[in-house]
Write a structure and sequence with these properties.
Elements: H1 4-16, E1 39-43, E2 46-49, E3 54-57, H2 60-63, H3 72-84, H4 93-105, E4 111-115, H5 118-133, E5 137-141, H6 151-154, H7 165-168, E6 171-174, H8 179-188, E7 193-198, H9 210-221, E8 224-228, H10 240-245, E9 251-254, E10 265-269, H11 271-274, H12 297-312, H13 315-336, E11 343-346, E12 353-356, H14 365-377, E13 380-381, H15 393-416
Parallel strand pairs: 3-13, 5-6, 5-7, 7-8, 8-9
Antiparallel strand pairs: 1-2, 2-3, 4-10, 9-10, 11-12
Bound molecules: pyridoxal-5'-phosphate.
Pyridoxal-5'-phosphate binds next to helix 5.
């Protein structure tokens, strides 16, 4: 594969931009040496790099692009709005129309506030919970990789440089599916926890009625339950994981797929809590999400169109169906290569990931890198195996072939040593090590 132009620009990028790009998960430390460093164009689930190489892509735009790249109805809706103006001195009626449309999908949510990024809205949810409860501590799920770029979350990770210790000490952790770990947090910090925040489901299924038990404990202890639906939203179900599991959180946050790649996110929740950010109450007002570009018109138009497409077309069904087809084919390839203990699929069909293990069956970044290297060489970029509405059966079947061939190399590397097959250093992701 010719990567000449990509590689030349890659050298330049690090001289101009710390880490060479603006999204952690797109960084060079997340991809093998032999990978396209820049993608110049996308259509559906296909992308082209700077050197003209074509790939089938998975997990597109960090799971933001669920319909497909350059999806015509969404692009056209955004463009029509751009021609009418993108940002006025007073709000646009689109804000109300999009709010109504989104709320109609999410049972139990009564009010919504739009923003640009997932981080903005999870941070706003935490701020609102602190204001509503008058408490400072935030309890986050230890197994869930990412909630926000802001200090309350990053301060609790291994990349906490620059975040004051007093801020770090305000975030505590519980374990998914371990209700006892939540009970002991509430006991240890009696009357101090403002909220519990988690994804309803990541790669592990909730068991023993975990989500409803969590809600019961939050109520009992006067804390709010916040569901982060950045990934589950517009994927598990049109109404998000909260509709899928029949759970009514106090607050929830959406982003990513909601605008099919356009920058838009939303904080939703119960009126009594959300109204603290409003004008018509006699309590102290919460400064809830105000930015210059907050309700940028073309992103709202893109979100409105995306939501309508979800309502009119079987998007979610397609994600499950193609994910199932992919999982079936990949599981056969795993079995053919005798790799059941070394390469595994995890997660829902609509959000498939893979786990790589070394010859001792320990999780391995070197083997993850090798797998990525081999699929990329054959025309598939798969940091995860998350499909979109644009992945056709042909794309899925080609991917299964590519994965089969790559697992053949994987099997040889288990016997001969990964170094013999890997070009360059292993990847070292901090936040989503196994995607
Ligand atoms: C579950 C979850 N919450 C929040 C975020 C933050 O969203 P954003 O990157 O749009 O700020 C992410 C981003 O990956 C995420 O996966």
């Amino acid at each position: 594969m010719n990567l000449q132009r990509s590689k030349a620009l890659q050298r330049k990028s690090h001289a101009l931009i710390p880490a060479g790009c603006h999204t952690y998960a797109k960084g060079d430390d997340q991809y093998p040496e032999r990978a396209p460093a820049f993608l110049a164009k996308g259509k559906g689930c296909h992308v082209w790099d700077l050197d003209g190489n074509e790939f089938i892509e998975y997990g597109m735009g960090l799971r933001a692009v669920t319909l497909g790249h350059a999806y015509p109805p969404v692009v056209e809706a955004a463009y029509r709005q751009m021609l009418l103006g993108d940002n006025f001195t007073r709000p646009s009626p689109l804000e109300i129309e999009t709010a109504e449309e989104l709320l109609s999908l999410i049972p139990g949510a009564e009010m919504v506030k739009f923003a640009k990024n997932g981080s903005d809205v999870t941070t706003a949810a935490v701020k609102l919970a602190r204001a509503y409860t008058g408490r400072d501590l935030v309890a986050v799920c230890a197994e869930h990789p990412f909630f926000s770029v802001d200090d309350w979350f990053i301060g609790s990770t291994s990349m906490a440089s620059g975040i004051p210790l007093p801020v770090r000490s305000l975030t505590v952790k519980f374990h998914y599916n371990d209700i006892a770990s939540v009970e002991s947090l509430f006991e240890e910090h009696r009357g101090e926890i403002a909220c519990i925040i988690l994804e309803a489901e990541s790669t592990e299924l909730p068991i023993n009625n975990f989500l409803h038990e969590l809600q019961r404990l939050c109520k009992k202890n006067g804390a709010l339950l916040i569901l982060d639906e950045m990934i589950t939203g517009f994927r598990w179900h049109n109404g998000g994981a909260q509709a899928f599991y029949g759970i009514g959180p106090d607050l929830s946050t959406f982003g990513k797929a909601m605008g099919n790649g356009f920058s838009i996110s939303a904080l939703l929740g119960k009126r009594e809590i959300m109204e603290l950010g409003g004008l018509y109450h006699d309590k102290e007002r919460v400064f809830l999400l105000s930015t210059t570009h907050g309700a940028e018109n073309h992103s709202l138009a893109a979100a409105l169109e995306t939501i309508r497409i979800y309502q009119q077309q079987p998007v979610v069904e397609h994600l499950y169906r193609q994910g199932e087809r992919l999982a079936k084919g990949v599981n056969s390839a795993i079995a053919e290569n005798g790799l059941q203990d070394y390469f595994q699929l995890a997660g829902k069909p609509c959000n498939l990931i893979y786990i790589t293990r070394d010859q001792d069956k320990n999780r391995s970044q070197a083997f993850r890198t090798l797998f990525l290297q081999e699929v990329i060489k054959r025309g598939v970029i798969a940091p995860s195996l998350v499909v979109s509405f644009s992945h056709t059966e042909q794309d899925i079947d080609r991917t299964i072939e590519v994965i089969g061939e790559s697992l053949n190399v994987y099997r040889k590397a288990l016997a001969e040593g990964v170094d013999k097959h890997l070009v360059g250093r292993p990847v070292k992701p901090v936040f989503r090590p196994f995607n």
